[in-house]
Each structure stands twice: as structure tokens, then as C-alpha cells.
Write a structure and sequence with these properties.
The protein has about 150 residues and is mainly alpha-helical. The protein has helices at about 1-30, 35-45, 50-70, 75-105, 120-150. Helix 1 (about 1-30) packs across helix 3 (about 50-70) and helix 3 (about 50-70) packs antiparallel against helix 4.
Amino acid sequence: MFVYLRNASLVLAFVATTAPLAHVLEMISKLTLDGPLWLAIQQNLYRGWGAVFGPVEILALAAASALFVLSRADRTMRNYYLVAALCYAGMLASFFAFNNLVNLALNGWTAASLPPYWRDYRLHWEIGHLIAAILSVIAFVAQLRAWRNQRQP
């Protein structure tokens, strides 16, 4: 059971890195877009991402937390899973502190009603994804190191 959970957790850790890293790779280009184009991308391109990646991050947190509990006899493994779980919790906190606020605000905007401070929202949104990307990579590396150790509790 532990081995299956560990392997599934590693797969979840990898998948949880994909969306935040995609946003980081797009960041430089998106910061140069004018308001109406940026808004159109936000409202159309990312539709449905939350329904896919939100559950992945929650499952990654649950799996890392379960592995933390199951690894209580092995301090090194336990610490790897603690780091991963804390990173996933941080990713979720970052989403609600940065990205969700922006998403809620811009859902009611149109190209004609774009507020003059829209660039602040764009930067806020990008910072949230940058934080998530850093945390997701740290969590993935922690779980990869745990997986590499191949110990069972």
C-alpha cells in the first residue's frame, strides 16, 4: 500500500508542477500584452484549468500528508513528505491570496470596462503563479528524493 501511495504521490507531484510552470513560462510575454488581449486570454484560455489542477493540488497535499504520517518511523522520509505537504498547503494559500482574488475581479470585466489599474491585477496574478511554481518544484524534488530512497515504514 505504501509503495502505491508513494508512486501515486510522485505522479501527482509531477502533474502539480505543470500548470504553475506553464504560467511562469508565459509570464514574460503576458506582461507585455495590452489590457483587452490580456483579459481575453484570462477569460478564455484558462477556462477549466481550476477544475483540473485544483483537485490535483488537493490530492497531492492529501497524499504527501498521508505519507508523512505513514513515514513516522523514518525521520528523513518524514521530513521529505513534510516539506512536500507544506509546499502544497502553500500553493493553495497562494492561490486564494493572489489568484482567486484576481479571477473573481476580472470575471465581471469586459474590454470596455477594464479598470485603469488592471496591470496591478495582472502582476498580482503572475506573482501568485510564480510562488506556486517555486513551491511545486520544491515539493516535487522532495518527493523525488523520498522515492529515490525507496524505504518503507
